[in-house]
Amino acid sequence: MAYFKTPQFLHEVFGEKQSMLEVSCTVLFALVGSWLVYFVADIKLDNWQVILAFILIADVLAGCIANFSLGTNAFYAKRPKNRLIFIAIHVHIVAIAWLLSQPMDIALIIWAYTIVTACVVNALHGKSIQGFIAANLMCYGIFLLIYLSLPTWFLMVSVFFMIKVLFSFAVDHYRQSTQ
User: Fold this and answer.
1) Are the CB atoms for 74 and 15 separated by under 8 Å?
2) Does 174 map to a domain?
3) pLDDT tens digit sequence for 75-88
4) By C-alpha distance, which of 71, 54, 70, 59 is closest to 27?
5) How many other CB atoms are found less than 10 A from the CB of residue 112?
6) What is the pLDDT of residues 128-174, one digit of tens each?
7) What is the CA radius of gyration of the chain?
8) Does 143 fall in a domain?
9) 178: in domain
10) Contact status, residue 43 vs residue 100, Cβ threshold 8 Å
11) Does the record carry Lyase as a key word (predicted)?
């Protein structure tokens, strides 16, 4: 697969090099996924809060795919401090809930579970068990989301938020494992 050097302002999103296939798939998933969430939510794009919320939703969906890419993974594998900062700043689900008038207590539960488990997974960097633990915690997280009885559109966004931060980002997918 042919890779190109990404512009520096996109390094945090796509890493230092990326393939057209990975960029295209990321953008397509963000657009199609946002449209599907918009369609299911049946919310009108008639004010700044809704527009900002859907920009954040598109970011969640794009990151869910981009974080699995070789370029993004390699960028953060070399920068463990940046990986922790990235995990810490992910308040998207809380912001989306606030912007679209969803219960903040539920959003905070989803956010706290995701951030805490992502930190646990990140602490296992370089261990062969990292991916397994991440998948296990992701599955428990899905049970949590189902238990919370969220509106369908918010469930969709919450699942992809959790995948993005906990499984897609916190796991070093292309590392050399150590025992």
Assistant:
1) yes
2) no
3) 999 998 999 999 99
4) 59
5) 11
6) 999 999 999 999 999 999 999 999 999 999 999 999 999 999 999 99
7) 16
8) yes
9) no
10) yes
11) no
Q: If DSSP states are collapsed to H, E and C, what string results for 45-86? A: CCCHHHHHHHHHHHHHHHHHHHCCCHHHHHHHHCCHHHHHHH
pLDDT digits (tens, 9 = 90+) for 5-53: 999 999 989 999 999 999 999 999 999 999 999 999 999 989 999 999 9
Cβ–Cβ under 8 Å, residues 111 and 91: yes
Best CA proximity match to 86, nearest among 58, 57, 115: 115
Question: Contact at 8 Å (CB) between 19 and 54?
Answer: no
Global confidence as pTM: 0.93
Q: How many CA atoms lie within 13 A of 80 on its CB side?
A: 7
Domain count of the fold of the chain = 1
Per-residue pLDDT, 175: 79
* Residue 175, domain member (yes or no): no
